[in-house]
Amino acid sequence: MIEYQNIFTQVQVRGPVEMGVDNENNMAAERGGTPWFSRLAGWIGNAQIGPVFLGWTGLLLFLQVCCGL
Known about the structure:
The chain has 69 residues and is mainly alpha-helical. The protein contains three helices and two strands; from the N terminus they run αβαβα. It has a domain at 35-67. A two-stranded antiparallel sheet has the order 1-2. The N and C termini lie far apart (56 Å).
């Protein structure tokens, strides 16, 4: 389908969900959450939100900020 596009037309490209680099074939199991797309975030940059991988340092930082530990 051909559409009229010029420099004033806003276009957001959306491809399949990107799960990130998986060099050991087990990193996808360690990530939490289901990836989703945000139209508002797409105006600024990448529209995909998630998946999130915190690791040990991210988990400790999250506990420190939220719980004050």
